[in-house]
Amino acid sequence: MGRRRADTYRDRPLVNAVAATSFVLGGGLFAIGAGLAQADVGGPLLPASVYLSGGVFFCSGGFASVLLTRGTSRLEYLSAVVLFAGTLVFAINIVDSFISELTPAQQDRLIWSPDVVGCALFLASGHFAMVDLTGTWLPRHPPPGIGWWICVVNQVGSVLFMVSAIASFVHRDGDLLAAGIANWGTLTGALCFAIAGVMQEFERPGED
CB neighbours (10 Å) of residue 105? Predict the structure, then answer.
């Protein structure tokens, strides 16, 4: 998304395809995991395993995005780096979810906190990308091209992820603040990233 230069990784269609496909698969798996959790299929282990698989693809997409933005504008590169950092923090959240017999306080510290931090990083990344595309900290008018729409869809997904994260706070009695909202927020947010990944497949790296 945004401005491109002819001598960067971003101009390599293969790397763009890897990033886009990774987000499609990662988003799809996260949506499946949330659906399994909402339907209470397979207990907590099955959804967590699906989330872990999706997290691998999200991290791959984040790293590919960093490669794509090397040599571009500072904001565009910063957006990709912050996004990649967010995927790594999400990975911590997912891995910690496999730890058994955690107290509510431990769940909030090891699982909930990284989740919120990862969502905040995703939101910051999306805003940096939007500013890079529009040239203003208060974007108003969409520029031509598909990049702006990809950014908007991703940002909607990030907002839904944050709603899900907040709803996942664990009370002292061990219950989530709002389990249904947490699952549906993750599912719909993940679908946004999957849709944005499909849209990215149609971008042409190197073209303004």
Answer: 10
